[in-house]
Every structure is written in structure tokens, then in C-alpha cells.
Amino acid sequence: MTVLDRFRLDGRRALVTGASRGIGQAVAVALAQAGARLALSARTAPALKPTADLVGRYGDTPALVPGDLADTAQAVLVDQAADALGGLDIVVHCAGILPLNPDGSALLAPLQQLPQQAWDQVVAVNLNATAAICRHAHAHLARSEAASLVLLSSVAGVVGAPLMEAYAATKAAQVSLARSLAVGWARTGIRVNALCPGWVRTDMTADVQAVPALSDWLLAHVPMGRWADPEEVAAVALFLASPAAAFLTGQAVVLDGGLSVPDGGLAGIPKPPSPLPAP
Ligand SMILES: NC(=O)c1ccc[n+]([C@@H]2O[C@H](COP(=O)([O-])OP(=O)(O)OC[C@H]3O[C@@H](n4cnc5c(N)ncnc54)[C@H](OP(=O)(O)O)[C@@H]3O)[C@@H](O)[C@H]2O)c1
């Protein structure tokens, strides 16, 4: 076996949530390219068709297990995925949301202005559903010879994130959950890690990308000075899911172009004035 063989997932059975677009779609394609057999989830089956078509180029037609994770009862989709694939070795949980305005656009507002309903919505999808997915995944992963659970958290979960407090709190909770489960499940052979990207070019960040003053200001705080592509996140998710990471568990793997490095301003990267309203 060469070191590159350790990145292969031939025959492994993987569930990817949030797989209809963005990071989840790129993760599904990456796992399929590495040889995994897949189950895909998002709120509706039709939304999963483009990803299913992409995945199908590299192997079996994926199973579709839709469910709206605003309702934790829908976490039964994990059991449906295990039924369809004959078990589960890998779960990459990507489904997640920012607080939303009624028109579906991102709601960036300080906590003191965030409606309780928006907080509850984010906690339901990002945190309560994550716990439910993990709970349902346990029995299936415990039967695997090489189990890996990856939670798509965020750098917002490990740094201060004003105007995104609800999102950041749920992402920090995912890091905490990954650490606790990793320790609790280690002797069962289940590895659990949180993957914490910085700013990634997806639908979730489309409203930010569309405002140059905001986008430029945010990138001024990223030492590498650019957005990440979903495929760059997917490559790290593949690593965490694969035997290449066989001794790696309980970690928050930050992938942010240097955003979270505490440079204290010493890097000298010019920072324009904030276009955001004062807190
Ligand atoms: N983009 C970034 O800059 C960034 C940075 C750090 C971390 N992340 C995290 O990475 C993950 C993926 O983000 P993304 O940028 O790829 O987001 P995205 O493009 O907005 O995609 C979100 C995915 O989650 C699914 N989803 C949303 N609400 C759901 C619900 N109630 N039930 C089931 N599925 C639901 C969506 O499916 P449908 O809408 O088709 O149902 C979609 O597949 C999230 O957890 C996010 O917090 C993103």
C-alpha cells in the first residue's frame, strides 16, 4: 500500500448531508472520486439530482434520503441511508444555515436585534439536527471497521463573529460535540472531527460576495486574500474521512487562508474601514 492508497475509499459507504449544492456537493463528488458508495441528503429529492448526476460519473447511482432537518425526527434519514447502502462507514454532515430574512436572504444583525425566531431556526438546523444526526449515526458507525464522522463547523465557531452570533454559537457547539464524541466513541473505533472553513464561495455567502465593499473588507482579514472554493474544503473532508487520517480524532481542523491566525495586526495587511453598522 502506498501513502496515496490511504486516501482511497473504495467500497466505503458514506452519507453526505447538505449535498444539494456548495460544500456538500463538492464533498459528495470528492468521496465518489475516491471510490465511496454514497447516500445524499438535502430537504428535497429533486434538489439532489445535479449532485446525483455528478456522483454517478464515478460509480454507483447514489441513494437519495431527503429530509428537512429543521425537524430532528427527520434524522431517521441516517437509518434510511444505512439501509440503502448496507451500513455506514462515513458521515459528513454539511447541512447548515445562516439566520435568514423572510425572503431567504442572509440576516446579518447583532444579537440584540436578532429576532428570537431567527435564533431558534439556526439552533434547530445547525445544532439540534447535528446532535440528532450523530445519535442516529452511532449504531451504524459502531459496526464499521473504519468509521469517520465529520461535522462541517466553521471558523466562526473558533473566533469572535459579531453580527453572526447565533451561527457562531452553533458552530462552536459542533466543535464541542465533535471533541466530546471523539473521546466517548474512540474505543468503539469511531473518529469524530469538526472541519472549520473560513469564507467559501457558495450560495450561503452569495449575499456577501455581491456587495464589493463588504467582500473586500472581509478578504482584507484573510491573509491569503481570497475566497476558498468548495473543492478545497472537500479535499480536507476526504482526508478526514479516509484511512490517511486514521489516528486523527477530536480535532477542529481550521481551513481559512490564515483568517484565525492571531497576527495582532503585525502582518501589515491594509484594512479598509468596516462597512458594517456599528454594534
Ligand atoms: N460557505 C461558507 O463560507 C462556509 C464557511 C464555513 C462553514 N460553512 C458550513 O458548511 C456547510 C455547508 O455550507 P455551504 O456554504 O455549502 O451552504 P449552502 O450552499 O447554503 O448549502 C447548504 C446545504 O444545506 C442544506 N440545508 C439547508 N437547510 C436544510 C434543512 N433544513 N434540512 C436539510 N438540509 C438543509 C441545503 O439543501 P437544500 O436547500 O437543497 O435543502 C444545502 O445542501 C454549512 O454547515 C455551513 O455552516 C460554510
Automatic annotation (TrEMBL):
Sequence ranges assigned to domain Ketoreductase in this UniProt record: 12-220
Keyword Coiled coil: no
SUPFAM superfamilies: NAD(P)-binding Rossmann-fold domains (SSF51735)
Cytoplasm in keyword set: no
Gene3D superfamilies xref list: NAD(P)-binding Rossmann-like Domain
Keyword vocabulary terms for this entry: Oxidoreductase
One protein family per Pfam: adh_short_C2
Lineage top rank: taxon: Bacteria
InterPro entries: KR_dom (IPR057326), NAD(P)-bd_dom_sf (IPR036291), SDR_fam (IPR002347)
Record-level Gene Ontology MF annotations: oxidoreductase activity, acting on the CH-OH group of donors, NAD or NADP as acceptor
UniProt similarity note: Belongs to the short-chain dehydrogenases/reductases (SDR) family.
Protein name as it appears in the record: NAD(P)-dependent dehydrogenase (Short-subunit alcohol dehydrogenase family)
Organism listed in the record: Kitasatospora viridis
